[in-house]
Amino acid sequence: MNQKATTWRSPSNIALVKYWGKYEPQLPANASLSFTLSNSYTETTLTILEEEADQEFDFEIYLSGQKADDFKPKIEKFLARISAELDFLKGHKFRIDTHNSFPHSSGIASSASGMSALALCLLDLKPGAPAAMSEAFLQEASIWARLGSGSASRSVYPRLGLWGKLESESASSDEYAIPYQGPVHEVFEDYRDTILLVEKGQKAVSSTAGHGLMNGHPFAKNRFAQAHENMDKLKTILASGDLEAFGQLVEHEALTLHAMMMTSQPYFILMKPNTLKIIEEIWAFRKETGKPVHFTLDAGANVHLLYPAAIEQEALEFVKTKVSSYLKKGEYICDQVGNGPVKL
Ligand code: PMV
Q: Is CATH 3.40.50.2300 the classification given to domain 4-186?
């Protein structure tokens, strides 16, 4: 083996049309589209050691320098899923060193950035893999990332990642994400996402469990059909730059995601009282000023405040004066649409 270690930085992403509901092997019930982020990322180094392995996958994982055995089961499951591709790892012990740019347990899903970073490392060390960052390489990395965490499939592309088969996008697939190919208005190229940290720590219900509850959910069929319609609407909006239509669509998607949680069996709520307080503040600010600030949510209590770069100053002033008292330690993360993963 010529190369024994590699390091990749891979970003998180925030879905505009949400993926919620899946079937084996980790295929989505509907197509989804996300902004790739810039400042929220995971950096991972994969090192293949000289020592011989005692079992099929013999590794240690370190998070910010601390041994993190808690992560092992999820990684083992992921490796088992792509085991047929990983013969090059099997004879040796290996080590995974990873850290996130965002605070630990900030409630930001680290699975999209974490699983995509690991998939990129694994593929990069695989003998005979396509050249790093080539189209074929990113497509394969997206398949692997998907098998770690569905939303991770979208993180390997700059700006906008589309995952899931959509009739109107011939290159799209349930197996991997593609870089969004349609026309995109320049306002979205550096769109801002200020992540308002309402809640830190472990989520009460994992996204795996949440996806599972879409099986047999009374509204599932309509929801999946609606998501497909919203994908097509979003494509028109991305081309036109109509920010009002954009905001209406993403807020509706966010609330629908949480409505699915609240109406599953068993039902659950991931929003917190402060999530709703912040949403009310956003709506009041929008009404008063006419500024295009909108929110989206992922599977948690944090609020993603989305707005164009041109109103950054006003939006951040709004966060400081009207929102920060609802945040854990007043914390928020300033992020924006980003350029995708890099090999370090
Ligand atoms: O990738 P998972 O299994 O953690 O699911 C993520 C689901 C949402 O974040 C709620 C939506 C999405 O499309 O990213």
A: no
